[in-house]
Amino acid sequence: MTLQVREAQPQDFPFIRELAAVSGLSSISPLRKRPPEEVQQAIKSALSSLSEIFRAASPFRLFTAADENNLFLGYLLLKIELDYITGQMQVLVVDFAVIPSFRKHGVGSMLLKKAEEFAGQMGIKAVAALVTTSNEPSLHTFLKQNYVEESTLLLKCLP
């Protein structure tokens, strides 16, 4: 299978929203007791303004992965930001998903390589991601690409 990663276009948005709503369920910590329907609606709502990414000053970049027949396989949403602890710029993987039937075929690895390539083009030396501990597919992909744990997010759910 030949894979290609390219910048997303407006016609890609419905695919991205649907895949995000499905894959986002594996990103929600079991500690956050929310019904799956609410989670999916929140994700779709959060991604309703994807067109804002195309503004010239937007810190976000969105990429899609497809096969040789232009079948969409996954996407990658990046944000260029300042790491307030180090004072250095970094590229944050905000969202990242691969169609479940195409996982373990190199799609996720290729998307992460695109994040690294993009960071390099911007002169940025770090790519970071927040991944919930229950999201084993994403954790596996990041670890396989030599990402290491740097910090821990602590959570206390209040009544």
Could you please describe the fold and organization of this structure?
The chain has 159 residues and is an alpha+beta fold. The protein has a single domain (3-144), classed as 3-Layer(aba) Sandwich (Aminopeptidase). It has four helices and five strands, in the order βααβββαβα. The chain has helices spanning 13-23, 36-46, 107-121, 136-144; strands at residues 3-7, 60-67, 72-83, 88-98, 127-129. Strands 1-2-3-4-5 form a five-stranded mixed β-sheet. Strand 4, helix 3 and strand 5 form a beta-alpha-beta unit. Helix 1 packs antiparallel against helix 2. The protein is globular, with a radius of gyration of 16 Å. The relative contact order is 0.17. The model has no long low-confidence stretch (mean pLDDT 88).
Main attributes?
globular, 159 residues, 5-stranded mixed beta sheet, 29% helix, Aminopeptidase, alpha+beta, 5 strands, single chain
CATH fold topology: Aminopeptidase
Low-confidence stretches: none
Fraction of residues in helix: 25-40%
Highest-level CATH class:
Alpha Beta
> Based on DSSP secondary structure assignment, what is the total number of beta strands?
5
The H/E string reads: EHHEEEHEH
Number of domains: 1
Placed side by side, the strands forming the largest sheet appear as: 1-2-3-4-5
Largest sheet: 5 strands, mixed
End-to-end C-alpha gap: 49 Å
Report the structural category.
alpha+beta
CATH homolog superfamily: Gcn5-related N-acetyltransferase (GNAT)
- Rg on CA atoms, Å: 16 Å
CATH architecture: 3-Layer(aba) Sandwich
Q: What would the principal axes of the Cα set say about the shape?
A: globular
Q: What's the total helix number? A: 4
Strand content: 15-25%
Average pLDDT:
88
